[in-house]
Amino acid sequence: MNRIARQYCFLALLCGQVLYSHAYGQTSYRSRIDSLKNEIDSKSAKEAISDRLDLALMEAGSDKQLALQLTKEALAAAQKLGNRKLVMQAYYTLGRVYIEMENYEDSQACMDTALFIVNSLNDDWYKGEILYRKATNNHFLGDQIEALDTYSDAVQACRKADNYKTLGSSYSMMGTIYRMNGLYDRAIEYIIKSEWSYEKAGFKEGKAWSDYLLGRTYADLGLSEEAMNSFQKALEIYKRLSLVDGDRGGEAICYAQIAMLNIASGDYEEALKNIETNREIYEAKGSKFGLSDVYKGLGVLEYSRGNYREAENYLQTALELKNELEETLSLASIYKYMGLCMIGDGQNEEGIRTIRKGLDQAISNDQKKIQLDIYENLTKAYLEIGNHNNAIECQKKQIEIQNLILAGGGNVKASQLSAMYEIDQKNNQIAELEKQNKINALSLRQQQITRKIMISGIILAFLIAGIILGFYRKLKRTNRELHEANAAKDKFFAIISHDLRGPIGTLTSFLQHLSSNFDHFTRDELEETVDVLCKSAENVSQLLENLLVWAKSQAEKMEYRPEQLNLVDCIENVVNDLSHIAGNKEITVSFERKAEILVFADRNMLQTILRNVLSNAIKFTHRGGSVSIQPEIKGKNSVMVRVADTGVGIEKSKIATIFDISSSYHTHGTENEMSTGLGLILVKDFVEKNKGTISIESEQKKGTIVSFTLPAAASVG
Fold first, then answer.
1. What are phi and psi of 50, to 5 degrees?
2. pLDDT, tens digit, for every residue of 466-507?
3. What angle do CA 259, 261, 266 make, to 5 degrees?
4. Strand-pair category, 626-634 with 638-645
5. Domain boundaries 544-716, corresponding CATH code
6. H-only helix segments in 626-699
């Protein structure tokens, strides 16, 4: 592999890994391999060939020889079967296996054969996949212009097949080529195109990869803020993905780049935090490659802080790991920083020798940007020790490399730049033609839609007529209900008007009489008058309270909030509240406290139910009478409360209308207490809201029994 190809190898492999992990998923990878192995022999010939090809792709990363054997077996079987599509898929898979084996010439031959077959099948999806891999092989073989041209062809095929995932990968690799060659405006354009394609495919990992590439581009341009924003976006997506598949590799590459930006801005604490996060990720993965970059990052950080000895130790550890892994691309940078640490520690000669080791490595790898940086450092180092000749020589080299980069000699010649722009122009022309074809197709489709709309319109007219008829009937029913509701409302206001006017009129008359003749009243007369006023005020207060609660309930502004309640405690509270009213009438209220009975009800509604039922019982019972309250459990799901009095009772013909607001039935208590019947209407409403029932048994002059049920707490839980 030549020097240019080495610069792209890592990026192309990582982009391929993104596609591969998306296709199979990290969590089910091994289980799917085992499942395919077990099923192959039991499948039909065609299914067995497809499964062998799938299995070969899965094994290619770990057992390349097994993957090669499986693919060749599948190819032979497909040729024997005479199935051209399976033969094409087998050559395509074989080409991918050869890529994993770094045998790019054989891979290219297989892809060419697969492409020849797929052109006769008119399968644009596979055509796009094959062209994408051919272009990647061109990268590895060092032919950038051919790679760009092939990626461009892959883009056209992927567009036709709506294969947005591979379309995004093609765009991202084209953007990477432009970035590595200093054409940053083109790089950004294609990386953004890749991002749009990944979004259409719903491929979140591809979106993260695009943001990462944008960050690298902005970092190359020295746009630190834009680079940081892009790396942070990529990091957030990789974090969410890692929660699903547990793979934090994407997070790691982002943390590494963010840490370098932190160091450049002097934010050393934040840089250290990001590098330590990287260490945790790579230690968990057991990745020596990742840990070597961690130690390199720590070395750069400590060098920037001026801790040269500590920095040198970290860099030495990184160097040992890189040598063990035979990874040479990072050696130039490591040697450079080791030498700078030595110079910082006063070891000028040793430091210069070490930096020159890095220079040799950068020249070997054709890393011109690093060469430029190293020559700049060497110029300063030689000036420090007074070696002006070497300083001038290094500065000349620095200028020479700078001119090469500015002239496009870093990697791209003028003819190559021209070819790149021609490819861009061809892509734009094809895009315009595709747009015009889509417009024509839409026009034809519009005509077909118009005809369908006319037919649908006739059918819709009949449907609308039916719907209108249904609405008309519903409107009539609603009007009838509104008429009944208005009648009830009028009756309700008539009741309020009559029963409020009575006690308020009494209050007004007594107060006026009391005010005019206060000095003429005896003490006993004053006490009697005040007693009458108190009773009238209590009657008005109770009526207003029931009125407000009922109105709130009807407006549906009273929220139903059920909870587990001890019914015995609730009854006892109400009995205590009304004890003074019962005592004034010398009425005995009997309630034997039992073990707790748990119900599931709204606390405020239950208090209102109990207060109104008990208040009514006291109101319609003669002085000296009695009222009893008996709660009891009815089966597993229900609790019943019975309130019995020895009062005046109710006519049987009136019991059926007692819960109807439109009914005119209401009467006063045994001592002329006010009553409108609104209390029992409110009770029924609240009992039903709490999933219960209510009933009344009564006989005139013998008393009344009001019974209501509530759901037991155990039945709800």
1. -60, -40
2. 888 887 788 888 887 777 566 556 555 655 554 555 566 666
3. 95
4. antiparallel
5. 3.30.565.10
6. 652-655, 678-689
315 CB contacts (<8 Å, ≥6 apart)? 295, 296, 299, 334, 337, 338, 341
Residues contacting 292, CB < 8 A, separation 6+: 318, 321, 322, 325, 327, 330
Question: Residue 92 has which token pair?
Answer: 């395509």
Closest by Cα among 329, 330, 350, 328 to 340: 350
Question: What SS3 class is residue 164?
Answer: helix
Q: Which tokens is 654 given?
A: 């009136």
Maximum Cα–Cα distance across the chain: 130
Per-domain residue ranges for the chain? 429-520, 544-716
For tokens 């009922």, what's the residue? 550
What burial letters (b/e) apply to 4-14, b meaning 16+ CB within 10 Å? bbbbbbebbbe
> Element (H or E) spanning 695, and its range?
strand 694-699
- The region that residue 627 occupies, defined by phi over 0 for left and psi between -120 and 50 for alpha, beta otherwise, is beta
C-alpha–C-alpha distance, residues 569 and 575, integer Å: 10
For 429-471, the pLDDT digits (tens) are 666 665 666 666 666 777 778 777 878 878 888 788 888 888 7
pTM of the model: 0.51
Is the distance from CB of 626 to CB of 588 less than 8 angstroms? Answer: yes
With b meaning 16 or more CB within 10 Å and e meaning fewer, what string describes 653-687? eebeebbebebeebeebbeebbbbbbbbbbbbbbb
Report how far Cα 169 is from the mean position of its chain's Cα atoms. 25
Amino acid at the residue 266: G
Helix (H, G, I), strand (E, B) or coil at 369: helix
